[in-house]
Design brief:
Structural class of chain A: alpha/beta
Helix content of chain B: over 70%
CATH class of one domain in chain B: Mainly Alpha
Radius of gyration of chain A: 18 Å
Oligomer: heterodimer
Structural class of chain B: mainly alpha
Largest interface: A-B, 26 and 20 residues
CATH superfamily of the largest domain in chain A: P-loop containing nucleotide triphosphate hydrolases
CATH topology of one domain in chain B: MetI-like fold
Number of strands of chain B: 0
CATH superfamily of one domain in chain B: MetI-like
Largest sheet of chain A: 6 strands, mixed
Strand order of the largest sheet of chain A: 7-8-9-3-10-11
Distance between the termini of chain A: 36 Å
CATH topology of the largest domain in chain A: Rossmann fold
Order of helices and strands of chain B: HHHHHHHHHHHHHHHHHHHHHH
Number of helices of chain A: 8
Strand content of chain B: under 5%
Mean pLDDT of chain A: 90
CATH architecture of the largest domain in chain A: 3-Layer(aba) Sandwich
CATH class of the largest domain in chain A: Alpha Beta
Mean pLDDT of chain B: 82
Number of helices of chain B: 22
Chain lengths: 240, 519
């Protein structure tokens, strides 16, 4: 995939509109931040891209392939070459760090031995090899984040969706992890779609941004264009 | 074919699955209703004074259990007190014991210490004290579970607002609805149990049904009486249930914070300790009464009594275990299906909760007689199945499905939606996900369901009495059938053997649960 696109996408959650008529194109190799206050529809947008939900209206495309349309997911999540790190990380608590990453390679054509080797390599890349046998509960918050990241990157996805995974961490650890994600995603050739409301993290990790508010797309573009003609509180802060 | 993601998303299969299980478990009762409705049902409502007496007893048990169990369970959710774990286990034990053990114990104690002609406990009061221990256990545990769901920050907020009194008021308010329903259920459960009535010479509806079926051999009359009793029980429970099912589901199955800290507040802890000691006395007194005939027996007849008890226990052990395991496995399997179908939808969880209370409210004799009438109408080649030992296990499994269903709904609520969604993103098959992640996470709930339903099935008398193949009773049924004729020491020895076996099983389950919690 070289481009993901949302076309006139709306989504209703619990009787209210979570997204309203969104048009957005995300090019491969151009990491993008999705910014907005709580309840703006950022996580909903990620879930629609991943195929975890079908849009109430509109279409989701990848290049010339229709992934989802109104009320239907046409291409299931695991066929989209998309990985995702959730806000609560969603690590499987009864599996070790190694098994969390290894089971994430379920669809890989690699042999059983090669999957183990690949999982260990990903853990090593995330500086977690000595902790491979530990259960998630025995890891610190930062280590758990890195296990989730290793699991997401192990299948070599084209797209890495991050749903505010650093929100519960202290600022120093967050800066460190943001830097690590940038390097790891580049090494694995995965384009990051980063949902956050932390402007500094977004600027450090991505080249472009889309700003949502109350389910509407307020503005989108590179950091330079947003800074030049700010339309939202986020870009005005950026301009300052 | 379902995928991991389907288990997290709405779908028509959920309603279909819950509907199918509901139909399956209600079929025996519907069969009975079909047969029972053919007669003069309203006329049956007035059979003797049995129904009136049973309803009075149910009201007494519900009221007493509620008044004691509601504050105790709510306080136990907030405060640490000496021997908390032990007292809670002791309080819950009567739920797993046949009521006839408690009734026999109270009766023996009353005869040994009381006034002539039959001691100070007889009739209504005897039945009430025999039933109230299990009612109290049900209500206390429900209040405990409901008040435990109050998050730590809400507890602190209540303390800041008005101290311990405000916190306790808040806990009592939170646990009121589920506890009231549990008390009602405790009352309704007494309607289907004939044992204490028989022991204390109190005419009850369940006793009358048993008499119609076992003594008069009149299946039609027993069916009509069961249908009338079931209608009475349902008309009492359904209005409250329908009004509160969804709210109860939200309260009971929400992902509640685990390990909320308990405070040691001296006055509250002391009051709670005293309360629980009083409650456990309701168990200890009949336990002492049960062993009285053994103390008074000469050593030679004591040895003979235990020899006879062990012989009877070993004769019935295999069948008791078989009925219990079949019931546990069936109910845990069906409960897992119900929990998967209900998922995280409060509406569907409420539907399963309503089904559970409906099933518990139906007297045990009703589905058993439904199956008996099915067996009577079926061709002879179906006898090995419909009149075999497996049918007893099936009937017991369906009877106690509500217990397993509640445990599995709770276990399912402890899983995180993200587990399923990550599995879907990585293309993990449902089979691999279930084997590696889901079933290990649900294992404690499944194990507990099999064990609890097994114990309840082992203590059941009515279903086994109505359905067991000739010569293959369970141990509890053996005690029930010999209690009137066998020497007192033999009956006491049988009860002690039963209590020891059940206690060993409970200890083993508690040990296993602790080990699972550690891992």
């Amino acid at each position: 995939m070289t481009q993901l696109a949302l076309r006139r996408v709306s989504h209703v959650l619990g009787g209210g509109a979570a997204l309203q008529s969104i048009d957005l194109e995300i090019a491969s190799g151009e990491p993008i931040a999705v910014l907005g206050p709580s309840g703006a529809g950022k996580s909903t947008l990620l879930r629609l891209l991943a195929g975890l939900d079908a849009p109430s209206q509109g279409e989701v495309w990848a290049d010339n392939r229709l992934l989802s349309r109104t009320g239907r997911v046409l291409v299931p999540p695991h066929e989209r070459r998309i990985s995702m790190v959730f806000q609560d990380l969603a690590l499987w608590p009864n599996l070790s760090a190694l098994d969390n990453v290894r089971l994430g390679l379920a669809r890989s054509p690699l042999s059983k031995q090669d999957r183990r080797t690949r999982a260990l390599a990903m853990l090593a890349l995330c500086r977690l090899e000595p902790l491979a046998a530990r259960l998630p509960a025995a890891l610190s918050g930062g280590e758990q984040q890195r296990v989730a990241l290793a699991r997401a990157l192990a299948p070599e996805p084209d797209w890495l969706l991050l749903d505010e995974p650093f929100s519960s961490l202290d600022p120093m650890l967050r800066d460190q992890l943001v830097a690590e994600v940038r390097v790891l995603a580049a090494e694995q050739h995965a384009t990051v779609v980063f949902v956050t409301h932390e402007l500094a993290d977004a600027v450090a990790l991505t080249q472009r941004a889309a700003v949502l508010d109350h389910g509407r797309l307020i503005e989108a573009g590179t950091w330079e264009t947003l800074r030049a003609a700010p339309k939202s509180a986020f870009s005005r802060r950026l301009a300052r | 074919m379902l995928s991991c993601l389907d288990l997290e998303q709405p779908g028509r299969w959920r309603v279909l699955l819950i509907g199918s299980v509901a139909l399956l478990v209600s079929t025996p009762t519907l069969l009975l209703f079909r047969r029972g409705m053919q007669g003069d049902l309203l006329g049956e409502l007035a059979w003797g004074n049995a129904l009136e007496s049973s309803l009075g007893l149910a009201a007494g048990v519900a009221g007493a259990s509620f008044l004691l169990g509601w504050p105790l369970g709510s306080a136990a959710a907030l405060y640490r007190f000496p021997a908390r774990g032990l007292l809670l286990i002791m309080t819950s034990l009567p739920l797993l014991m046949p009521s006839l053990l408690l009734a026999l114990g109270w009766s023996a104690l009353s005869l040994a210490t009381g006034l002539p002609p039959r001691g100070w406990l007889d009739g209504y009061v005897g039945c009430l004290v025999s039933f109230v221990a299990s009612g109290l256990a049900l209500v206390t545990l429900t209040a405990l579970a409901a008040a435990s769901a109050i998050p730590e920050n809400q507890r602190e907020a209540a303390r800041l607002f008005g101290g311990e009194r405000a916190l306790l008021r808040n806990a009592l308010r939170s646990s009121l609805a589920p506890t009231a329903l549990a008390a009602l259920l405790a009352g309704i459960l007494t309607l289907s149990d004939p044992a204490p009535g028989q022991i204390f010479s109190q005419r009850t509806a369940a006793g009358a049904i048993l008499e119609s079926f076992a003594a008069r051999n009149d299946l039609v009359l027993a069916s009509r009486q069961s249908a009338a009793l079931a209608l009475a029980a349902l008309s009492l429970s359904l209005p409250l249930l329908l009004a509160s099912a969804r709210g109860l589901a939200l309260l009971t199955f929400a992902r509640s914070p685990l390990n909320t800290s308990l405070r040691s507040v001296a006055p509250a802890s002391a009051t709670t300790t005293i309360g629980f000691l009083c409650v456990t006395t309701l168990l200890m007194l009949p336990a002492a009464g049960l062993t009285l005939p053994l103390w008074h027996a000469p050593s030679t007849s004591l040895a003979g009594a235990f020899e006879a008890a062990f012989a009877r226990a070993s004769d019935t052990a295999l069948d008791s275990l078989g009925y219990a395991l079949a019931a546990g496995a069936l109910s845990a399997g069906l409960a897992l299906a119900l929990a998967a179908a209900a998922g995280r939808s409060a509406r569907l969880q409420g539907a399963v909760l309503a089904l559970s209370v409906f099933l518990l409210a139906i007297p045990a004799a009703a589905p058993a007689l439904g199956l008996a009438s099915l067996a009577a109408a079926a061709p002879p080649w179906a006898d090995p199945v419909l009149r075999g030992a497996l049918m007893v296990g099936v009937a017991l499994g369906l009877r106690f499905l509500p217990v397993a269903a509640l445990l599995m709904l709770r276990a399912w609520s402890s899983t995180a939606p993200g587990w399923f969604e990550v599995a879907a993103l990585h293309g993990i098959s449902l089979r691999a996900f279930a084997g590696s992640i889901l079933l290990p996470a649900l294992a404690p709930g499944l194990l507990l369901s099999v064990a609890l339903v097994g114990l309840l099935a082992a203590s059941d008398v009515v279903t086994v009495l109505l359905l067991h193949p000739p010569g293959r009773p369970s141990l509890a049924l053996s005690i029930f059938t010999v209690m009137a004729n066998a020497p007192e020491a033999t009956v006491a020895a049988l009860c002690v053997v039963y209590g020891a076996a059940a206690g060993a099983l409970v200890a083993a389950i508690a040990g296993r649960a602790r080990a699972l919690n550690r891992t």
